[in-house]
């Protein structure tokens, strides 16, 4: 059997392909909106990336033409806020000076481990200390770390010891 001429074979192949594609068309149509939306989003993101790249290049080019502000006018810092005019503004303590004082300090003799104690540990030992011991610890705390929680607790305990107990309240 003699093969059919090439144009006939091509036409038959083209017809079969058209039928196959026509059968796939309903499935492709169902996915078409998703494909179109996906490609549109990709294009949109590429455009946004390109715009951002151009803006960055423009910023770099213009940065040399105008001086940058050391401190933007919209930025505010705690130091910039005006202090109340009641009196002189309190001077902030230099942390290096505080550390040097703490290192050079002798531990209080009433409680040599005082500087290492936590607030709960100190609270547990307060009842065993005399008024003189408490004064020594309070002076030590005020001249060194000056932690409000510690000074407050020591001062309250000292005030309780200094207050005479009346026979009615016993």
UniProtKB/TrEMBL annotation:
Amino acid composition bias (Basic and acidic residues), ranges on this chain: 91-103
Domain of life: Bacteria
Biased composition (Acidic residues): 70-84
Stretches the record annotates as Disordered: 62-116
InterPro entries (alphabetical): DUF8129 (IPR058442), LipDrop-assoc (IPR047728)
Pfam families for this protein: DUF8129
Location of the DUF8129 domain: 119-161
Protein name: DUF8129 domain-containing protein
Species: Saccharothrix australiensis
């Amino acid at each position: 059997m003699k093969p059919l001429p090439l144009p006939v074979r091509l036409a038959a192949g083209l017809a079969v392909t058209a039928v196959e594609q026509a059968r796939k068309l309903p499935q492709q149509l169902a996915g078409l909106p998703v494909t179109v939306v996906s490609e549109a989003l990709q294009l949109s993101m590429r455009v946004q990336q390109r715009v951002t790249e151009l803006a960055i290049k423009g910023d770099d080019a213009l940065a040399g033409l105008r001086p940058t502000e050391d401190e933007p006018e919209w930025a505010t810092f705690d130091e910039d806020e005006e202090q109340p005019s009641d009196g002189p503004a309190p001077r902030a303590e230099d942390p290096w000076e505080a550390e040097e004082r703490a290192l050079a300090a002798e531990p209080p003799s009433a409680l040599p481990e005082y500087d290492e104690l936590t607030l709960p540990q100190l609270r547990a030992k307060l009842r065993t200390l005399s008024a003189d011991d408490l004064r020594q610890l309070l002076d030590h705390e005020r001249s060194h770390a000056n932690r409000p929680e510690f000074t407050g607790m020591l001062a309250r305990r000292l005030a309780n010891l200094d207050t005479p107990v009346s026979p009615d309240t016993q």
